[in-house]
Hints:
The structure holds 2 protein chains of 2 kinds.
Chain A: E1 2-10, E2 19-28, H1 34-47, E3 70-71, E4 74-75, E5 97-101, E6 110-112, E7 115-116, H2 119-126, H3 148-158, H4 165-169, H5 176-187, H6 196-209, H7 220-224, H8 232-242
Parallel strand pairs in A: 1-5
Antiparallel strand pairs in A: 1-2, 3-4, 3-5, 6-7
Chain B: H1 14-21, H2 27-30, E1 34-38, H3 42-54, E2 57-61, E3 79-80, H4 92-102, H5 109-129, E4 154-155, H6 161-178, E5 182-185, E6 188-196, E7 199-207, E8 213-217, E9 220-223, H7 244-251, E10 256-257, E11 262-268, E12 291-295, E13 312-313, H8 315-319, H9 329-341, E14 353-356, H10 358-364, H11 366-384, E15 393-402, E16 405-406, E17 419-421, H12 439-459, H13 473-492, H14 498-512, H15 519-539, H16 551-575, H17 599-602, E18 604-612, E19 615-622
FE2/S2 (inorganic) cluster binds next to loops of chain A.
Amino acid sequence: MIQLTLKIWRQSxxxxxxxxxxxxxxxxxxxxxxxxxxxxxxxxxxxxxxEPVAFDHDCREGICGSCAMYINGRPHGADQGSTTCQLxxxxxxxxxxxxxxxxxxxxxxxxxxxxxxxxxFDRIIQAGGYISVNTGNAVDGNSLPIAKAQSDEAFAxxxxxxxxxxxxxxxNSSAMLFVAAKVSHLALLPQGQPERKQRAVKMVMQMDKxxxxxxxxxxxxxxxxxKEISLQTISQLNREYWHQ
Amino acid sequence: MLNSKIPPVPLAEQWHTYQxxxxxxxxxxxxxLEIIVIGTGLAGASAAATLAEQGYQIKAFCFQDxxxxxxxxxxxxxxxxxxxxQNDGDSIQRLFFDTIKGGDYRSREAxxxxxxxxxxxxxxxxxxxxxxxxxxxxxxxxxxxFGGTQVQRxxxxxxxxxxxxxxxxxxxxxxxxAMGNITMYPRHEMLEIVQIDGAARGIIARNLISGELERHxxxxxxxxxxxxxxxxxxxxxxxxSNVSATWKAHKQGALFAxxxxxxxxxxxxxxxxxYQSKLTLMSESLRNDGRVWVPKTLGDQRPANSIPPAARxxxxxxxxxxxxxxVPRDIASRAVKEICDAGYGVGNxxxxxxxxxxxxxxxxxREFLTNKYGNLxxxxxQITGEDPYEVPMRIYPAVHYTMGGLWVDYELMxxxxxLYCLGEANFSDHGANRLGASALxxxxxxxxxxIPATISNYLSKYIGSSSAITDHPAFAEAExxxxxxLDRLIQIQGSQTVTSFHQRLGKIMWAHCGIVRDRxxxxxxxxxxxxxxxxxxxxxxxxxxxxxxxxxLDNAQRxxxxxxxxxxxxxxxxxRQESCGCHFRSEFQTDQGEAQRQDAEYAHVAAxxxxxxxxxxxxxxxxxxxxxxxxxxxxx
Lengths: 244, 636
Ligand code: SF4
Ligand code: FES
């Protein structure tokens, strides 16, 4: 059993001022997941007649991109290549204090406590993050051979889960890695060629419009990305963008 | 009473015939017809996008913050299609037979044949969308075999096939949003169906941020809300996956079919403690090289590596010499449960068995294992803190998928006119057990190809009719029912949390309606569930208010529905006096302990009509087989 002290950002509504509230927790099992620890705290708060901590989560296996906590100054905590829901308490020492905040970015306004609004990402996809093909138009899947290496590279970019950690880590709140991942995925495939040029421009324009900052190449995004999306996707995006 | 509307022509011609003869709607008229889609997983997103492409006006709803997060995203394995790219003898008929046999002769031939027919087109469309499927060096699509089939027909994208397919459908949906054909309502939950003159004409939804109730009208409503494995509390489903949309429809008259058919996956990471919130599935490919065992002696507490081979019981190899560790999912799950029930389980909870790679490591070396299972081993280490290269994994079965769901006809319409149900939420294609890599196929078949072909047959009657009907008294009535229910929940102010009730529900279901069922257990469970429902409505404690963001309230109303569903599942399992597929009644087994179907009495779909609290009536839909022939499986 271990004891931890949590300092959690509590903010009742989007407009309200927030503050840190400290919660000492005892009797935690090292095999508990980080989110199970928050569940545990919430059960206690509910029984005590207090408001539980609001946070987004769903799959709890690192794939849906819902969970989003800024833990001790790093999105998704200290473990490399993992999401908040994939953290376990055995990574912490008995007696540790853990600070938990929401993603901070003008483009991701806080809704409540640790929950933020990431709909800007959906609007960036709307701007061009797709291949325009209606159902029923397709030719046989094998009529278009794609080299394995190229397909694998496209897949590596397509793994982005849209969590927003890249934005939260960036001092400029840039969404470049997210945009670059989608632009690279589609630019690397032959199916993505017809709309290739327009796609990059439109998605970047939408990114700017949403209030994300510009990229100054510090690489903190890729360092925290749970899917380890490569910084090279950003170079790819720049090439796509400036090729106009 | 049930009319499944199967075209009266031979099986292989049905879908073609249907499409040639169904009523169509011109593009100009489609623009004035509105459709509501609940859920944005593979079925919902593909349906919404395709119907919007055709020209309909769509309103799509999901409870997550973005449609991209629906639980289809977590599917690992792959998607089947009868492409026969491997030239290994696959065909539509073979996929059809495998699905019928896998479902243990409890699915409807017409729907399964159509599914197999459509399967190839799904792959073509997904490739066109840019889904990065795995490929061979020559650039062709790669296939693997999955779930014990003899052909290689499974397409995949590493272990993230569901993610890639969902993102394809999501992007198509976002494109239609940008074009103004879909209005998206994320962080919204449907809480009631609105019927006017016996037809579904809209919904009441709750805005999960503001807490406000909203009225949305349309000419038809599609429920694509996924499965209900979370009735067991612990399952591999996402935390938010719930039955509420289909359950609300059920209570308004939509029949619920085969609710007790739930698939249990043998290779999941075992429960670590009372705080466990969900379970994680690991691909069943793990059983290809791992050996399953428990100590031979009761109470042998030595660490796994200190137990010599002679003191180990490789019970799957012992009981099933021909298939050994590769017996089908349900057989493996049952054997694991039995051995743990007998007290041989390992780990803290004693509810786990070893899956050991020591022999494979010695024989093939570490690199071999890393290439094949590197990701899975890493995931296991992350969750348990143990290294499978050093100590055997511990595994235990967990609930993974529900074959049951709303009864639908050939057009995917429920017994409520204008209310359709797609994907895992309906009952239609998998019978008593689903084949591996068939869930993604069905979700996308329903959404991309079936509903876009069938819905016009119904909607044509609404040409020229408005959907601006939210001031109809039926909407006000439905809204007040929802408001009253939420008020009632929040006013209980009892002493137990929603989660504590959910956990108790899960324990009852797992004990009595899980891997093995019997009459006594099911009868006891029904009593316990009725008592638990009563206790819930008297003693649940929900913080906050109705008029605000309140995840506990959202969850409370979902758990209230799960409590009722659990009862119906037990009623269904009790009524089905046979063993079939994943439904194993201990009273009905062969001398060798295998499931024994009772085809003369139970070759039917059990479609349940809600009558009043604790009371349902069964309307069996007889299953007739034109092509498939009953046979008994054996894995000895
Ligand atoms: S690029 Fe990485 S960090 Fe950014 S949204 Fe995608 S997965 Fe998250
Ligand atoms: S909850 Fe889905 S990625 Fe963390």
